[in-house]
Amino acid sequence: MISSAARAAASRLFSPEFRSVFAKTLGLTLLALAALWFAIEGLFEWLAWPWIDAWLPSLPSWAGWLGFIVAGIGLALGLALLIAPVTAIIAGLFLDDVAEVVERTDYPNDPPGRAMPALRSMVLAIRFFGVVIVGNIVALLLLLVPGINIAAFFIVNGYLLGREFFEFAAMRFRPEAEARALRKKHAVTVFLAGLVIAAFLAVPLLNLLTPLFAAAMMVHLHKAISAREAA
């Protein structure tokens, strides 16, 4: 089910049917990441730079350049860790658009899902945004633990992204409590699907399409699990 859902989602990313939602999600993702870059840079200059500037006169010139390089890497890592929460909130805005395209093109004979109310969708997206930020802070701390390192990124994001994207897709057809119960019943499958999304998220440039890929993949996975449940 997972490999089939991932292949079906990937095959639709650049299709004509996805063109409109593709442009909206990619544009907003880039805009949000650019805004976050300037916010992180401003925060760094406000909090860290005065302390660094005070030390620079007493350091050799090569140390100053090394400091600039380390600061740049730190800013880039901070932005990389924010891609997951940005993905979550952008997906919350356009999940129904993605789901409608997938349902119309790949499941034309099935009853269409119902879009979540805009306010409820936004509340869930904001809640998920906060949860993913906290999860990635934990993952960042675990990067310092030998034997865990990068696995922490995949485990944390695999669990969180799998859980939330699956529930978003399921709630088009089920009440919120029933969608959560279905996710818990198939927790291992949903987690493994989340790991696929986390791997997609880890690929530079391609990760900008994560909202589109994750939403489409979980629509396919929910359809497959629903068919198995009915059988």
How does the SSE layout of this entry go?
Blueprint: H1 2-12, H2 19-47, H3 49-55, H4 61-106, H5 118-142, H6 150-170, H7 176-185, H8 187-201, H9 210-230
Helix pairs in contact: 1-9, 2-4, 4-5, 4-6, 4-9, 5-6, 6-7, 6-8, 6-9, 8-9
Q: With helices defined by DSSP (H or I, 4 residues minimum), what is the helix count?
A: 9
Could you tell me the mean pLDDT?
A: 78
Oligomer category: single chain
Given helix and strand content, the structural type is mainly alpha
- Backbone shape: globular
The tally of beta strands, per DSSP, is 0
Radius of gyration: 20 Å
Q: The biggest beta sheet, please?
A: none
Uncertain segments are: none
Order of helices and strands: HHHHHHHHH
Q: How many structural domains are formed by the residues?
A: 1
**β content, as a range?**
under 5%
The N- to C-terminal Cα distance equals 15 Å
- Helix amount, in percent? over 70%
Structure description:
The structure is a single chain. With 231 residues, this protein is mainly alpha-helical. The protein has one domain. Helix content is 80%, strand content 0%. The protein has nine helices and no strands. It has helices spanning 2-12, 19-47, 49-55, 61-106, 118-142, 150-170, 176-185, 187-201, 210-230. Helix 4 packs across helix 9, helix 6 packs across helix 7 and helix 8 (187-201) packs antiparallel against helix 9 (210-230). The model has no long low-confidence stretch (mean pLDDT 78). This is Cysteine biosynthesis protein CysZ. It is a multi-pass membrane protein. The chain crosses the membrane at residues 21-40, 65-95, 124-144, 150-166, 187-209. Its main location: membrane. Keywords: Membrane, Transmembrane, Transmembrane helix.
